[in-house]
Every structure is written in C-alpha cells, then in structure tokens.
Design goal:
Blueprint (H helix, E strand, L loop, with lengths): L2 H5 L3 H27 L2
Amino acid sequence: MDRHQLERVQPDERIRGHLVNAFVWYLCVSFANIYRSSQ
C-alpha cells in the first residue's frame, strides 16, 4: 500500500481509527485503575 492510497483514506475510516484508539486507551486506563485499587 503506497503513500497515495494512504492519503486517500476515507474520513469516516480515519474517524473509526481514532475511535478504536480511544476505546483501547479507555480499556487500558480503566483496567489499570481496577488493578491498582484491588491491591
């Protein structure tokens, strides 16, 4: 996949990528909080 295809990514695909990233971060942070509070 070359750079020209990367630059033509649909906006909703990019938004979906940001949503997935935010969701993964939220899972990691909440899991860390539960782990810390359980000790």
